[in-house]
Specification:
Layout: E1 2-7, H1 12-22, E2 27-34, H2 38-46, E3 53-58, H3 63-66, E4 72-75, H4 91-108, E5 113-116, H5 121-134, E6 143-146, H6 148-161, E7 173-175, E8 182-184, H7 197-208, H8 210-217, H9 226-244, E9 250-256, H10 261-272, E10 277-285, E11 288-292, H11 301-328
Parallel strand pairs: 1-2, 1-4, 2-3, 4-5, 5-6
Antiparallel strand pairs: 6-9, 7-8, 9-10, 10-11
The protein binds 1,4-dihydronicotinamide adenine dinucleotide.
1,4-dihydronicotinamide adenine dinucleotide binds next to α1 and α4.
């Protein structure tokens, strides 16, 4: 049985995600932490008659207690986008929140698997890595930036233009988690997709900027919360399934390529050379990243170009994340 902590559990994502995690019968303890409103959320969820016990922790003084004996830490704490904002605009506030939370993870449950949802993921994951390194507890296999929503959107948006397509279609999405760093590899879809060039270009654009549809529709009330909660709950379910079975379970995630140097070689050869982090299809396991799932075949010209564009933008984000930690240490 698995102990899971959600940091930022009273937020838009946090509440829905905690609800979905309460439905996961493999979870034995759900530790819900926030700086506001968490007693009500946790008490409400705790009445659902599934296996896990729900505990709540409010305020920084209770953060250490929340993290005791935790196997998986999910971090959706931080501010979301408003219309007109890019994910990068969230940098300063969310970087300091991530710093505080990851330091506490390092001190209290250094072996836990950490899944970061807080944006900009392209920055927050390198920041988390630097903090864990500084504390001497970094294991690249244990750290994930949650990019599952990009794959969820890809599968759903394909269905919007191909009504007969099963929504479980597998589409690898690589790169990062922001605008043009999101690179859906439609030519690797399983089952194969039969799409014209114009359809491909429109679909790629919609997957890259799908989050903007939600920000606009919510007109100032935030960004994706419900679909994000679904995506993160799916990620956790996959992770736990990989602990419990010998099945090969793959989810996309932004990871440190040092987690699997052999698998990283292929990604680097596609135009991501010199990058420490990249979103890739990951085979999950008890140790976190078991390996990077290799792509079988060659990406199209458009996909290769997409990877190069993503790599250039990601490099800037990663460097900024690393220098943020150096400057604020
Ligand atoms: P929200 O504002 O509804 O919730 C954020 C929660 O974090 C609040 O309950 C707040 O009290 C809490 N919080 C703030 N500072 C904290 C701290 N120091 N310690 C613990 N909790 C703290 O925001 P929402 O919509 O839930 O989004 C959360 C984050 O997730 C945002 O950064 C957003 O951009 C990101 N996001 C990520 C996606 C992804 O695919 N990875 C998709 C959509 C959003």
């Amino acid at each position: 049985m698995v102990s899971v902590a959600v940091l930022g559990a009273a937020g838009g994502i946090g509440q829905s995600l905690s609800l979905l995690l309460k439905l996961n019968q493999s979870i034995s303890r759900l530790a819900l932490y926030d700086i506001v409103a968490i007693p009500g959320v946790a008490t409400d969820i705790s009445h659902i008659n599934t296996n896990s016990t729900v505990e709540y922790y409010i305020g920084q003084a209770r953060l250490s207690a929340a993290l005791q004996d935790v196997d998986i830490v999910l971090i959706p704490a931080g501010i979301p986008r408003k219309p007109g904002m890019t994910r990068d605009d969230l940098f300063n506030i969310n970087a300091s929140i991530i710093r505080e939370l990851v330091e506490a993870v390092a001190d209290n449950c250094p072996s836990a698997l950490i899944a970061i949802i807080s944006n900009p993921v392209n920055f927050t994951v390198p920041i988390a890595a630097e903090i864990l390194k500084a504390r001497g507890v970094y294991n690249p296999q244990h750290l994930f930036g949650v990019t599952t929503l990009d794959a969820v959107r890809a599968a759903r948006f394909v269905r919007d233009i191909r009504p007969n397509m099963d929504t479980s279609v597998y589409i690898p999405v690589v790169g990062g988690h922001s605008g043009n760093t999101i690179v859906p590899l439609l030519s690797f879809a399983e089952p194969q997709l039969d799409l014209g060039q114009e359809e491909i270009e429109e679909l790629v654009h919609r997957i890259q900027y799908g989050g903007d549809e939600v920000v606009k529709a919510k007109s100032g009330a935030g960004s994706a919360t419900l679909s994000m909660a679904y995506a993160a709950a799916r990620f956790v379910k996959s992770l736990i399934q990989s602990f419990e079975t010998d099945l090969v379970i793959v989810e996309p995630a932004l990871v440190d390529l040092a987690a699997d140097p052999q698998g990283a070689r292929q990604i680097k050869s596609l135009g991501a050379d010199g990058l420490a982090f990249f979103a890739v299809p990951v085979v999950l396991g008890k140790m976190g990243v078991k390996r990077i799932e290799l792509l079988r075949g060659e990406p199209s010209v458009l996909e290769r170009k997409g990877i190069e564009i993503a790599a250039a933008a990601l490099k800037i984000s990663i460097d900024k994340g690393i220098s943020y930690v150096a400057k604020t240490s």
